[in-house]
Amino acid sequence: MKKLTCFLTILCVISMQAQRDWSTVEITSEQLSDNIHVLFGAGGNIGLAIGKENAYVIDDQFGPLTEKILEHIKTLTDKPVKFVLNTHWHGDHTGGNENMANQGALIIAHENVRQRMATKQDRGGGRISEPKPQAALPVITFNDKMTLYLGDGNSMHAMYVYPAHTDGDSYYYFPGDNVIHMGDNFFVGRYPYIDLNSGGDVDGLIANVTMVLGMIDEETKIIPGHGKIASKTELKSYKEVLVELRDRVVNARNEGNSLEQTQILGLSKEWDETHGSGFINAERIIEFIYKSAD
Ligand SMILES: [Zn+2]
């Protein structure tokens, strides 16, 4: 069971990268609109937008999977992958950047993604992420927002959002297709991972989710960082849990409880079985909130 849980978790996926047998990973996909697909494999969900001349990829999982990912894309379109965009810097979303760049793609991301990838990162708990090679780094960065015109009347909107999962989080929104990729700001039915060492912040996360809920409708297809495609209703209940839990943790903190004391109050008990069964358990989500809430 422990091993299974480990496989389902992102941190473990990263740390197990070296031992992992990539040959067993199967890439599958689901069509979300005329021009947009999502690809599943190992690591973050990949968005694929097919424009008039080019294919656009959002996140690229792990380097050893690039061949398989490109093979799968060839079954969906004959357009070349000219643009790769990253939702944030974590290796399970950017691990294929170097290979993608070497086959001709331009890597695009928020400036903070480039900064963190280009420098040594202390992930906490003794985990160090070494600087990535030049070819893996975004060659075009943005600070706020950017629009990519796909040549067929459709467009993709890159939106930098408040620091939430990391301080380089961006969403990629396709208004014409009614699809949005939210990266790791959204784990359907689970507690979020707020990477405090990368500038993550629960208040930013709640603000971002609130903004998206105001932009989308019941028909919108949401690509979360991991897991199945989600709806507005699911995003709404994710937010409700976050808001309620944040209030409880902040109240306990304001009453003078230490982190350790707050963690044993049972503040999240009604959600722990469902939301806390992955790699972010009750203890960790309470720590994230305790340390990052204003
Ligand atoms: Zn992540």
CATH topology: the name is: Metallo-beta-lactamase, Chain A
Distance between the amino and carboxyl termini: 37 Å
Alpha-beta classification:
alpha/beta
- CATH-defined architecture: 4-Layer Sandwich
Mean pLDDT: 94
- Count of discrete domains: 1
CATH class: Alpha Beta
- Strand numbers in spatial order across the main sheet: 1-2-3-4-5-6-9
Shape: globular
Instruction: Please provide the count of β strands.
Output: 14
Q: Strand portion, in percent?
A: 15-25%
Give an overview in words.
By secondary structure, the chain is α/β, with parallel strands linked by helices. It has a single domain (12-231), classed as Metallo-beta-lactamase, Chain A (4-Layer Sandwich), CATH 3.60.15.10. Helix content is 34%, strand content 20%. It contains 11 helices and 14 strands. It has helices at residues 2-7, 10-15, 66-76, 91-94, 97-102, 111-118, 202-215, 232-254, 259-263, 269-275, 282-292; strands at residues 28-31, 36-40, 46-50, 55-58, 81-85, 106-110, 121-124, 127-129, 140-142, 145-149, 155-160, 170-174, 179-181, 221-223. The chain has a 7-stranded mixed sheet. The chain has a 5-stranded mixed sheet with strand order 10-11-12-13-14, with no helix packed on it. A hairpin with a 5-residue loop joins strand 10 (145-149) and strand 11. The chain is globular and about 60 Å long. 47% of the residues are buried. The model is unreliable at 1-8 (pLDDT under 50). Residues 88, 90, 165, 184 line the site of zinc ion. Zinc ion (ZN) binds next to loops.
